[in-house]
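Input record (one chain):
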Amino acid sequence: MNVARLSAWAKAAVREARRQRVSRIVADSPGDARALRALLRGSGAPGPATIGIRALDGRRVALRARTTDAEVAVATFAGRYHLPPPLAGPVESIWDVGANIGLTTAHLAQLHPHAQVVALEPHPANFACAQANTAEYAQRCVLLQRAAWTYDGTVGLEGESGPEDGYRVSETRADGEVEAISFNTLLDRFGAPDYLKLDVEGGERALLNESTQWAASVRCISVECHPPYSLSECVSDLERLGFSTQALPQTLRRRARDCAIGVRRRGAH
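The corresponding structure, as predicted from the sequence alone:
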């Protein structure tokens, strides 16, 4: 994959990898560092590479060549922007909404060994990767090949090969249909999450404004905002839903985009 074709956040991820040193992300094997650098350059063998990750206690994950998987790995394990702020009390339930290839799911499961992690990823190929990359945590991870939406049913899915992390719900149904599940249904099935990570490539406005009964049961939420949904709009929506909010500092903005953190206000329903 030509670096010129990468989206802006992916280019930023490549630069971040150079700053952070890939060797800090991977396990001790020099071969892992070389393999990850090759993936970031878009070179190397066409098949997937398995790479040991330091943050996963050396467990190996599969990253596909000539995709955005390597950039996702850097954003996950160097940036760590998917993690919640320190929370009072135990974290026993996590929803990873927009799991992509399962790296954030695996990391959340690794850091919270007593938590059940419910992960949603609608795209079939990404979902298969997520299953493989979370196999070590299968007893505590529930993976659903579903799109998060405001209702249960089917929705359109839109995206393109290249930015494999960029598939999103679309009214055009240009790239087919997928099953959708609402947060209210997730709440009924799995109980209230202590932490909800929401990264759905543009569906966040609808999810925070329609059928939001679920929100009162969430202790903490992080939302990545995608244009035209602005950070200020997201903050207003989260505060209306009973969260105290903060934006990540500009130096830590995820993927060169905006991310808001909401923690439930005491007594807010």
